[in-house]
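ERR on first pass: missing label on line 2. Operator R.T. fixed the label and resubmitted. Corrected input:
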Amino acid sequence: MTALPTRKLEAFRYADIDALASVWSELAQPEHVKIAAQQKLQQIWLPNGEEIEVRRAEIIVEAGAEFALFALNTATEYGRIELDVTLREGSHFTLNAANIGAGTSTLEIVTTVRHAELSAVSRQCIRSVLGGTATGSYLGKVAVARDAQHSDGEQSVKAMLLDRGATANCKPELEIYADDVKCAHGATVGELDADQLFYAMSRGLDPAAAKALLLEGFVMGLWDDAQDGDAIRAAARSALRSVT
Amino acid sequence: MLRIENLHATVAGKPILNGLTLSVPAGEVHAIMGPNGAGKSTLAYVLGGRPGYDVTDGTVTFDGQNLLAIAPHERAAAGLFLGFQYPVEIPGVSSLQFVREALNTQRRARGEPELSGAEFIRLAKAEAAELGMDAEMLKRPVNLGFSGGEKKRSEMVQMGIMRPRFAVLDETDSGLDIDALRTVGAGINRIMRAPDKGVLLITHYQRLLDYVKPDKVHVLSKGRIVRSGGPELAHELEREGYAEAAA
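pass 2 clean. output:
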């Protein structure tokens, strides 16, 4: 069995190791997902309601295949979504995911996306909404192999802090060995916009409803392309209500 | 209906309104004109209850109720509508969702039944059509990517849907071309001209007043009303400028 990681490992630097220890025996071995060449697959990962919830997956997207993952990370104590994705020639990977937490929860999304061959595309869009003294992190590495020309990778990472004690860590990272690639990343951490809040309140929304509506606008666009996305929309909406 | 007495207000500690007194009876439209920096927008924001606009003295009552004692959303529920000079963009939230939630929150606060989705859509489409706005725009995020004129039309569509009892319209005419000005002016008359309603029309120029005839015109300068008169005052200001008229 694999040893319990420590915070010295970059991918675990913000992890709640004690919480991880309690579930490690079940998930030291990641689950495996393989999308066969030219196939299309979509998955929606909903939270299961446990206080500690860790999902680790090794994903291989074969040539010309497409994989879209929609994930919601809302565990009240510790939630971790960890992906190691390998992209073969011309494949396409999309991750749209949210950390939504309050109280003292630690939520993290940690990804390594390997553009192993030519012309693969990856799109990662992460939104975090954090209240109380919660910590939400995104550590995302896009690694482009030497021969993986025409790779196209994007990471968009935004976090919204609702309270003074909340923390967001955003770390998009690029490791590129090919010379003809397109990789973009952007990260912002902010608070709710005072102009938008006042505008909403002047139209009659009470402060809590105004906040909830603005946060919906911040997060809910993630699920626009999800098929059968009603459950993740409802779960995200209820998570947002519980943090405001 | 709206009674403002000796209103003093500061923004970031700086006095902007300095003893403003003004009363708008039900059934009337009053225009407030004045040069840049006179305090026009500050007045609008103080009436709307924007944080950071601090009232240091004076009173504002709306149908006898102390307006300054209640929060912005409660003012809306009481029937006050603030038309923004720069309507705010809200990404990710459609106009339909925004206005419907706002309207239904107001209705709940007043003890009125909420509108169903179908009732609301019918109402929103009718108002958009009246104001010459493509109803498809209501499905887009609030004001996002709208031109200046589209934002102002969108404000008037919201006003038409909400049917407030009193509207404070802050430079609703800015950014409008001549055709849009006529449409918006007609909208204000249609929605707000009634014996039990009132309007405070804040504007820089006289041109909107060609379409929305005010009962009274007030000149605001250095945070107080320095002159009041009938509609002819607006023409005099246009001719002679604020410096002359306020002297």
